[in-house]
Amino acid sequence: MSDKGSGLDRVHRAGGCFVRVAYGGFAALYLLICLYSIFRDAASVWIVAVAAVANVAAISGRRFTAWTIAAVTLSLGTTAYLALAFRPEFLAGVLAEIGALLIVTARTVRQADRRRLVPLTALLGAAILACPLRWSVVGAAAFTAPLGVLLAIALGVGLYLRAVEARRARALAAARRDERLELARDLHDFVAHHVTGIVVQAQAARFAARSGAAQSPEQLDRMFGGIEKAGTEALTSMRRMVGLLRDAQNADAPDGEARPAAAVPGPDSPPRPAGDLTQLHDLVAGFTHPPAALTLAPDLGTLPPEVVASAHRVVQEALTNVRKHAADAASVRVSLARADGAVEVAVRDDGRGRSRRLPSSGFGLTGLAERVASLGGRLHAGPRPEGGWEVVALLPAGDAKP
């Protein structure tokens, strides 16, 4: 995952912690006031304790299900006891209990798995609607309808948030899967290229043997060495392709089927890189608003085909993002260079992020991170200290020749 995505996750987690702490502090203060005001009998204190458990469930994290079951059990048990055997005079803590149970209901609908969703929601609804029975049957008749409206709102909020998260999860899984399938298509082409080289060299060796021309040991070694290298590269690409296809069509990840599989390229499909940097030159040269410049390090050498294809994909996505989100940029610099045994692909602009007019799906960098990680590399996308934006990918270069 890119650094940008990790940063957004940290912001979301910090915001969630802040909301939980704020709500927990307010609930604790309210319950303390209730406890101070109604410290008359054990039943009133017990009601405040049940409300405290319900509020802990509302802000709980990893043990949310356990706290939810505890809160529902205590609430239903307390209602049954108070309705049948004892009716306290003061029930201020019930308001905090009902509010917390409504929050727990929305959270349960949002994040509970399908096996627990219906039973937990039914128990929570019963606990909320039964609370007025603690006063009297008349009180239950008067307050059950308003509580039913509040319960319906909580259910609606939970269902909406669940649908939003499910849709985002499916879109994210589909973006990753499509990028893997795209890379697998590229690797398939590279395997075919290597196998063709093996066949050609083997045919040349057979032709030389049949013609009776004497071959020196050096010539034979060079010929068989080429066949060996092409076969090794073909096997490496094939292993990567099979691994990517297994991940992209994982039967245990149904969200990956949110979109149809990537279409088979037709005669009108844009060409894909076939192992050289020619198309990268054409891609950068065709980007004129703002103008882009390409810099290739002299020691770059011959790169593996999958590295070239991934570099082309990184530059293409980065330039697209510049056009979408940095229309005020004056220039874009694209560079490929060696860096600690890897190839650094960098796209940097000097824009300030103004004049954003075009919409974005938000999954382009996710797909890039998936592709780069599949090759064993890293992707960084974020603002530059001196201003502007940069996308930097480190791709393993293998045994590239100088």
UniProtKB/TrEMBL annotation:
GO CC, alphabetical: membrane
Domain Histidine kinase/HSP90-like ATPase per the UniProt entry, residue ranges: 310-397
Reaction(s) this enzyme catalyzes, per UniProt: ATP + protein L-histidine = ADP + protein N-phospho-L-histidine
Top-level taxon in the UniProt lineage: Bacteria
Region (Disordered): 250-277
Pfam families per record: HATPase_c (PF02518), HisKA_3 (PF07730)
Domain Signal transduction histidine kinase subgroup 3 dimerisation and phosphoacceptor stretches: 179-248
Keyword set includes Membrane: yes
Protein transport found in the keyword field: no
UniProt GO molecular function: ATP binding; phosphorelay sensor kinase activity; protein dimerization activity
InterPro entries for the chain: HATPase_C_sf, HATPase_dom, Sensor_HK_TwoCompSys, Sig_transdc_His_kin_sub3_dim/P
Transmembrane segment boundaries: 21-39, 45-61, 66-84, 90-110, 117-135, 141-161
Gene3D superfamilies according to UniProt: 1.20.5.1930, Histidine kinase-like ATPase, C-terminal domain
Protein name: histidine kinase
Species name: Actinomadura hallensis
